[in-house]
Model the fold of this input.
Amino acid sequence: MRLVLLGAPGSGKGTQAARLKDYLQVPHISTGDMLRAAVAAGTPIGLQAKAVMDAGQLVSDDILLGIIKERLSQGDVANGFILDGYPRNVKQAEALTALLAEIGQPLEAVVKLDVPNEAIIARTEIRFKAEGRKDDNPDVVRDRLKVYAEQTAPVADFYASRGQLQSVDGVGELDAVFNRIIETLDASKPVG
Ligand code: AMP
Done:
């Protein structure tokens, strides 16, 4: 299964992707996790990305395309993947479509988790206290939601206009949301 999970920061897509990975037996590819690992390791990409990430803004499309190209060239994606955090703007969605066409592995599903902003703000506050991620600071979360509305929401429109988008209610218990995603995937047809 080749799947893109869309949703605002704090919508639960990382948590659900981690579960889907076991269920679908495909790798969970989180560009946010990969960038945080690069920051922690002090790689050149990490050094470039840190301030941008701390401010809740998007890291450059070129850096992300390099990361995603490299990751999708690895053997463990032969049976599919779950993309979490990519694509984040329409340019990335177009680049991903072209890349997947090139390797003959089109997406099979695009699922968006819908969670209202008030719930997002509450969830990220809890995560901020638990994990201390700088970008979960309530002020930064407001900026991230703005970036989402301006740059990432159009990605959902991009897939919707191609008849590829499926929306799932992301409010509720983890298990309930997980079951909704599975039901949606079971009902979904392959997409290009
Ligand atoms: P996430 O864990 O997905 O919320 O990502 C954390 C941060 O990493 C984001 O706020 C961005 O600064 C950066 N990031 C992750 N994925 C992307 C992407 N596809 N494009 C640009 N920046 C990204």
Remarks:
- The pocket of adenosine monophosphate is lined by residues 9, 31-32, 35, 52-53, 56-59, 64, 85-86, 88, 92, 135, 144 (CB under 6 Å).
- The CA atoms of residues 54 and 135 lie 5 Å apart.
